[in-house]
Automatic annotation (TrEMBL):
Belongs to the uroporphyrinogen decarboxylase family. Catalyzes the decarboxylation of four acetate groups of uroporphyrinogen-III to yield coproporphyrinogen-III. It catalyses: uroporphyrinogen III + 4 H(+) = coproporphyrinogen III + 4 CO2. Pathway: Porphyrin-containing compound metabolism; protoporphyrin-IX biosynthesis; coproporphyrinogen-III from 5-aminolevulinate: step 4/4. One of its GO terms (molecular function) is uroporphyrinogen decarboxylase activity. Its EC number is 4.1.1.37. This is Uroporphyrinogen decarboxylase. It comes from Catellatospora chokoriensis. Substrate binds at R2, Q3, A4, G5, R6, D51, Y126, S181, H294. Homodimer. Pfam families: URO-D. Keywords: Cytoplasm, Decarboxylase, Lyase, Porphyrin biosynthesis. Transmembrane segments: none annotated. One of its GO terms (biological process) is protoporphyrinogen IX biosynthetic process.
Amino acid sequence: MRQAGRSLPEYRSLRAGVRMLESCRQPDLVTEITMQPVRRHGVDAAIFFSDIMVPLDAAGVDLDIVAGTGPVVAEPVRTLADLDRVRPLDPAAVSYVDEAVRMLTAELLATPLIGFAGAPFTLASYLVEGGPSRNHTKTKAMMYGNPQLWHALLDRLADITLTFLKVQIAAGVSAVQLFDSWVGALSEADYREYVQPHSRKVLDGLADAGLPRIHFGVGTGLLLPAMAQAGADVIGVDWRTPLDQAAKQVPGHPLQGNLDPAVLFAPWEVVEREVRRVLAEGRTAPGHVFNLGHGVLPETDPTVLTRVVELVHTLSAR
Ligand code: CP3
């Protein structure tokens, strides 16, 4: 969740003068950036440094990741003819991912490496809008107005995502996380009709790999059961839904989450109280991976993050 290092001075200095997508193509840089928060904070797992847009870039879509804005697509996908520009992903086009994962697993030893990809809906929202969007109007216009084109686009994105995750799995990641960050913009009925079959294609396609499949979105309080039914093992929850409520919605599923990233700007007493609450609520689930409820904000004080990790370790060791 964009947390590898945006708040770390050592990340900023490594990235100085290197564009985001360019940094993702350099296995040495990817390895070093992925290791930085593990070394500094002593977290229990590493998240692979990359971006959800990397496989689309590798599949030939003309795009950029602009600092402070996010992904920007040069020619948005709006018609059947535009679909031709979304090519299948050749695993050889992301050989730098394969290489970086191998370098990392050699360095991390027993610390798990979490691989990831963007889910079809969230990728489609960037492709159709051409960039970040508040109301996803163009995306929804295609979804409702041309369902055939919509399903063809999402099917293609599901194949790209599946290929991208299989590359990471073959190279040795221990778990995968499928990010459907913006799917909370949909009602449950629309999610089931327009999105779930495509997310299921990705998640079911990984079933044989036998590693945990984590699925996360923002504002998904009402979508959690449908997201679990898409084939996820672990459900990521944003900060709006208390974990004990989420646990009731998706019985049998371990949860990941969900400290509000903005709480890290509050006085320490508040941070501690909120960490304790998240851990207590997480105990009602069959398993709990402590995490933030969305990405670390760039202005976050990294020393607070280190204290949070220490506190979680102390409290969960009991
Ligand atoms: O946590 C990590 O740093 C691991 C790697 C990671 C990144 N992006 C690196 C990144 C992961 C897991 C992502 C996922 C991602 N990217 C998602 C899904 C998770 C989520 O946060 O919702 C989404 C929606 C994106 C698309 C994207 N990429 C956005 C919205 C942005 C932020 C733009 C900004 O500057 O505010 C990016 C850029 C990005 N991806 C950064 C990082 C570290 C920051 C850019 C930079 O350092 O220059």
